[in-house]
Amino acid sequence: MLIDTHAHLDFPEFAADLEAILERASAAGVKQILSIGTSVESSRRAVELAEKNQAIFAVVGVHPSAAGEVEGDYLGELRELVKHPRVVGIGETGLDYHRMRSRMSGEEQAGEWAEKDRADGVQQAKVFQAQLELAAEVGLNVVIHERDAWEDTVAMLRPYSGRLRAVFHCFGKSPAHAEEIFRLGHVVSFTGIVTFKNAQIVQETAKVIPALSFMVETDCPYLAPVPYRGKRAEPEHVRTTAEWIARLRGVTVEELAAETSATARDFFRWPA
């Protein structure tokens, strides 16, 4: 059995044919799916999906790109959502400096843009910190989004060692980066990126890191693996990613499925 540990089933790309998508996933051996929130409203929708389908569980949180849009007592709303028995984690949360980094080489980084970027970074960190505190408070682990913000993300996580664990989703970095977070008690998760022609670094990471230190995911509707690249990703495609990683590691897909599912169940403290 495979588990897609990161999907966005509440997104509009899936509104028209969700039942067919779930049927295709089940036929491919993907029996459980985590629908990940990106805002309070998205998190509510993820919980509603989990209520309606036994194959779906929910993770609730505010994505760093939505950190500037939080209103009112958003943390209180998340605190209410995590009480639901179908909620198994907090996220996706973290830091994303990609747009900031892309502007640093251009004239836009001066003046107004620099000030906006500083304010955005402060707000992202504030919302990330609040969700880490919530996770520690309620005893749930966190799903991390990190893009071009490695040092700051790891620094913010360090004080929580022993209080919570994190999965760095859509992991695309080196074995050395993976080892750094393994030492802190965290894990990683691989998407269809591992199948891309230019993904040698993440392929090497997927090949050499220890068993039971990683999971598999789609991040659908994004990042469909080869040979579906450029199309809408969906949960059934996690099997293609698992098959690819199994070949890299010299194991069967059944062995890899058992290992990654065990990691997911342990990490998310899967309800019986």
Overview of the structural elements:
This protein has helices at 18-27, 40-52, 74-81, 98-104, 112-138, 150-157, 175-182, 200-208, 238-249, 253-267; strands at 2-7, 30-36, 56-60, 87-96, 142-147, 166-168, 187-190, 214-216. It is built from ten helices and eight strands. It is an alpha/beta fold. It has one domain (2-267): Metal-dependent hydrolases (TIM Barrel, Alpha-Beta Barrel). It has an eight-stranded parallel sheet. Helix 2 (40-52) packs parallel to helix 3, helix 8 (200-208) crosses helix 9 (238-249) and helix 9 packs across helix 10 (253-267). The protein is globular, with a radius of gyration of 18 Å. 46% of the residues are buried.
Secondary-structure blueprint:
Elements: E1 2-7, H1 18-27, E2 30-36, H2 40-52, E3 56-60, H3 74-81, E4 87-96, H4 98-104, H5 112-138, E5 142-147, H6 150-157, E6 166-168, H7 175-182, E7 187-190, H8 200-208, E8 214-216, H9 238-249, H10 253-267
Parallel strand pairs: 1-2, 2-3, 3-4, 4-5, 5-6, 6-7, 7-8
Helix pairs in contact: 2-3, 8-9, 9-10
Distance between the termini: 16 Å
Could you say what the CATH topology is called? Answer: TIM Barrel
Return the string of H and E elements.
Answer: EHEHEHEHHEHEHEHEHH
How large is the share of residues in beta strands? 15-25%
Sheet with the most strands, sense and barrel status:
8 strands, parallel
Mean pLDDT, to the nearest integer, reads: 94
Please identify, by name, the CATH architecture. Alpha-Beta Barrel
Return the CATH class.
Answer: Alpha Beta
Percentage of residues in helical conformation: 40-55%
Query: What is the tally of beta strands?
Result: 8
Shape: globular
